[in-house]
Amino acid sequence: MLYQTIKDALPTLAETSADKKTTGKLPSERQLQQQFNSTRVTVREALMRLEAEGVIYRQNRIGWFLCPKRLLWDPIQKVNFYQLAKNQGLHARTGLLACKKTQANSDICRAFALDGQSEFYEIYRIRYLDERPVMVEKIYCPAGQFPGLEDKALDGSITTIFQDDYRVKVSHEQSDIIVTALPDDKAEQLNLNGGAACLKIIRKRFNTNQELVDYNIEYWLHSAIEMRVQSN
Amino acid sequence: MLYQTIKDALPTLAETSADKKTTGKLPSERQLQQQFNSTRVTVREALMRLEAEGVIYRQNRIGWFLCPKRLLWDPIQKVNFYQLAKNQGLHARTGLLACKKTQANSDICRAFALDGQSEFYEIYRIRYLDERPVMVEKIYCPAGQFPGLEDKALDGSITTIFQDDYRVKVSHEQSDIIVTALPDDKAEQLNLNGGAACLKIIRKRFNTNQELVDYNIEYWLHSAIEMRVQSN
DNA sequence: CAGTGGTCTAGACCACGAT
DNA sequence: TCGTGGTCTAGACCACTGG
Questions:
Q1: Final residue in a domain of this structure, among A66, A88, A107
Q2: Checking phi first, is residue A195 left (phi over 0); if not, alpha (psi -120 to 50) or beta?
Q3: Where does the HTH gntR-type domain start and stop, copy by copy (chains A, B) (predicted)?
Q4: In terms of pTM, does the model score above 0.70?
């Protein structure tokens, strides 16, 4: 199986392609095809397996790259994203893609115990680690509860805005985590390809009165993250 | 993209192929190729994407099947596997593949603060949900601490054996969780194909003295499991 | 033994990126 | 504009499953 051959050669490959000390880009698929005396379909199958393994990733229409180390995350701790990254020597950044008032699907309405006509803020954001896009998220919160939210600095910490501007404090949260494939529209935002493995996290955050504060849907590039949990 | 077409047709497909009330098996790749006027490579790409999504899975050289619902698991709770499954209407079973005394790799020795010459029990097991293989695990524990372990009923709860037969009580644990591809040897045991997405969980369990009791490496078929965690 | 999935070959066309 | 990745066609051989 070609996959093993390529895997063993990976370190060399990334080096040789490195014009200067560049980003760990692999040679083009056609170059690999020649080098390994194979065909493009086969080369791609091998690359996709390495992608599944979390060893390489690809950027849409750009090429294949070696994966940097994963961000270590504890789903129990309510830690600030920037702080978490910094502690691990990574630079975090958040980009705001959109913020609009809209209605939400039935799952979300039900979670808030609101009916289907209710208005929500939908905040669409993207997160980078060392300028590599690794996650997109949509945050839903009831519009009535956060007047003027669209004018806040939404490319920072939402938790801080809730707390400082609206006196709403998140006390605990629940995360649902599954492995799935990146939907095409999310992939596009991340400059990745639809179908890549990802972690889908649905996070519900509550205040001390057990009321839902916001509903968050995240898609993480699977090779960018590692989870560590501690039972008591 | 063919993938969407097939996805939409999935319910119909699983039905039509069902000889009797069978397991949700899809038609053969060649049948699909004809039905959708395409080629096998393309059909397979579409199927593999659906597999990545967690909608279908394949058994090695048998075919493609619709996925049953996922087992919901809380990595914080130290719940018995059988009980967990039962609560969710699933039937759990464990098979013992092997149990031997052996040396362990450096990661594991270091975790136990033992040197590379130390002997360990290595217990290799497989777990089924409704008779579908969904996980393989290797459990390592220091041989000296558990004399005669190989003669116990290792297809049941290890925790119970530790507690009842050796007076060793697990008090807390730490789990490391990443998404990766199923290695070929693990895939073989599961009757699956190497390269399928999986959850790899490394779990360390400690006694009340903060001493490591066992070291567990699990590979879960990704579409068989969903995680739910609650922060305090 | 017939049919299946696993793996591979040898091309093709298009849209987009880098230049 | 040229090369790249994204998608697809049309075959092939083999090992294994299931009847």
A1: A66
A2: left
A3: 1-69
A4: yes
